[in-house]
């Protein structure tokens, strides 16, 4: 599965009926709001992006071009 932001493999194992690491990570709610509608609930944001968003929200939005939305 690919991260909806950086499009890198996020290592999500939801597909395999396992507990994915993403269940134990707290993803900021406002970050979830930026996931494209069609992908909400079915994709995981990768750890890198979560960390990026947490430490530098404005930088994150700039890099992924969400500034104007
Ligand atoms: Zn990512
Ligand atoms: Zn996952």
UniProtKB/TrEMBL annotation:
InterPro entries: Cys_rich_CWC. This is Cysteine-rich CWC family protein.
């Amino acid at each position: 599965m690919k991260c909806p932001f950086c499009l890198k493999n996020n290592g999500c194992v939801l597909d395999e009926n396992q507990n994915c690491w993403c269940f134990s990570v707290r993803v900021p709610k406002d970050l979830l709001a930026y996931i494209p509608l069609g992908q909400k609930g079915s994709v995981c944001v990768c750890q890198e992006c979560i960390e990026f968003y947490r430490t530098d929200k404005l930088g994150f939005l700039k890099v992924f071009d969400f500034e104007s939305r």
